[in-house]
């Protein structure tokens, strides 16, 4: 299997307490691309948070096969997850809550990823009656609004058990309902998810830290969007870390007009590292005498995800997560 033109999806689903459902969703991702010879997709990782009742499946594939893998996983998730029965402390609006498509190779454009994301939302809304979608990033034409402003616009941050679905807007599919909810689907450059836990139950203080580290705050960390949640008797600072491509995307840092080289060249990204986020949170918490408990990466850094995807697909390992195990919190 060629390692060129890879894409990836960090699929967020509103289920973490039923291991069998997670395994079925992972199997469906690779079963959906099984009609062609060779391994055409791989589930690299499953991250499962029991308290949040939320899981993230990392699905990688050549960009022309990514839609089939993601749609297969989503259809299984919609079949098995009834959002009206789901409870957890993390905001959510959908049984399948988020479908973000990211390029892994410099030869894969955001426009292409956006078209794939839009097509995923269209197929799912056509085939799963009652599903509903809002679009973001490169799938949201012509505005191309980011995930955070779109979430604010549709009311994602108010998403919890027992909400009034008549107040929520959508872009594609049926009006949002208690069974399936409302799913975000879009494309951007890779977003790293990094959570830092501090030893306190003071949510207001956690929100102070969130404000201090956000990219929108003067002196904040570039690309960092953050929220604070109660989590297993502590406060978790949950960070989404946006990335941007470095200017020189040629192999080895040298300019090249070789299309074959460019196709196989991983996309090199700039982003605030988890270590930088951890240290900033640790320093801010320490000012109040509060210790840091630890830091968790949800999935991988972009360069690690790319390497694992290439290795898994070339070696024919379509369920890499099994050798890594489900990561729990």
What features would you describe in this structure?
The chain has 329 residues and is an alpha+beta fold. The chain has two domains: 6-190 and 298-328, Formiminotransferase-cyclodeaminase, Chain B, domain 1 (2-Layer Sandwich); 192-297, Formiminotransferase, C-terminal subdomain (Alpha-Beta Plaits, 2-Layer Sandwich). Helix content is 32%, strand content 26%. The chain has nine helices and 14 strands. The protein has an eight-stranded mixed sheet, with helices on both faces. The chain has a four-stranded antiparallel sheet with strand order 9-10-8-13. Helix 1 runs antiparallel to helix 2 and helix 2 (63-80) runs parallel beside helix 3. The two termini are 34 Å apart. Residues 251-257 have low confidence and may be disordered.
What is the level-2 CATH architecture name of the largest domain?
2-Layer Sandwich
Q: What's the β-strand tally?
A: 14
β-sheet strand percentage: 25-35%
One letter per element, helices H and strands E, the order comes to EHEEHEHEHEEEHEEEHEHEHHE
**Euclidean distance between termini CA atoms:** 34 Å
Task: Give a short synopsis of this structure.
By secondary structure, this protein is α+β, with helices and mostly antiparallel strands. Helices cover 32% and strands 26% of the residues. It folds into 2 domains: 6-190 and 298-328, Formiminotransferase, N-terminal subdomain (Formiminotransferase-cyclodeaminase, Chain B, domain 1, 2-Layer Sandwich); 192-297, Formiminotransferase, C-terminal subdomain (Alpha-Beta Plaits, 2-Layer Sandwich).
């Amino acid at each position: 299997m060629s390692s060129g033109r890879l894409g990836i999806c960090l699929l967020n689903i509103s289920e973490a307490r039923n291991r069998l459902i997670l395994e079925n969703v992972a199997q469906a991702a690779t079963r959906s691309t099984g009609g062609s010879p060779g391994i055409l997709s791989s589930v690299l990782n499953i991250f499962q948070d029991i308290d949040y009742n939320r899981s993230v499946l990392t699905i990688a594939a050549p960009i022309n096969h990514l839609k089939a893998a993601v749609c297969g996983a989503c259809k299984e998730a919609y079949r098995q997850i009834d959002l009206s029965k789901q409870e957890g402390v993390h905001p959510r609006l959908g049984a399948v809550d988020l479908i973000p498509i990211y390029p892994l190779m410099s030869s894969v454009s955001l426009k292409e990823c956006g078209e794939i994301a839009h097509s995923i939302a269209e197929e799912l809304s056509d085939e799963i009656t009652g599903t509903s979608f809002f679009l973001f990033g490169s799938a949201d034409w012509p505005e191309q609004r980011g995930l955070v402003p779109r979430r604010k616009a549709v009311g994602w941050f108010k998403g919890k058990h027992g909400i009034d679905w008549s107040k929520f807007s959508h872009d594609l599919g049926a009006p949002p309902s208690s069974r399936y909810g409302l799913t975000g689907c879009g494309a951007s450059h890779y977003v790293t998810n990094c959570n830092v836990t501090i030893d306190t139950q003071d949510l207001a203080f956690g929100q102070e830290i969130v404000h201090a580290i956000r990219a929108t705050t003067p002196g904040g960390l570039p690309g960092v969007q953050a929220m604070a949640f109660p989590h297993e008797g502590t406060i978790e600072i949950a960070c989404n870390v946006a990335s941007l491509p470095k200017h020189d995307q040629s192999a080895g840092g040298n300019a090249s007009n070789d299309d074959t080289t460019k196709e196989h060249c991983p996309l090199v990204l700039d982003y605030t590292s988890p270590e930088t986020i951890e240290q900033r949170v640790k320093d801010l918490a320490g000012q109040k005498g509060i210790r840091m408990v630890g830091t968790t990466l949800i999935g991988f850094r972009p360069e690690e995800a790319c390497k694992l995807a290439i290795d898994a697909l070339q070696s024919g390992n379509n369920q890499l997560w099994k050798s890594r195990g489900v990561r729990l919190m």
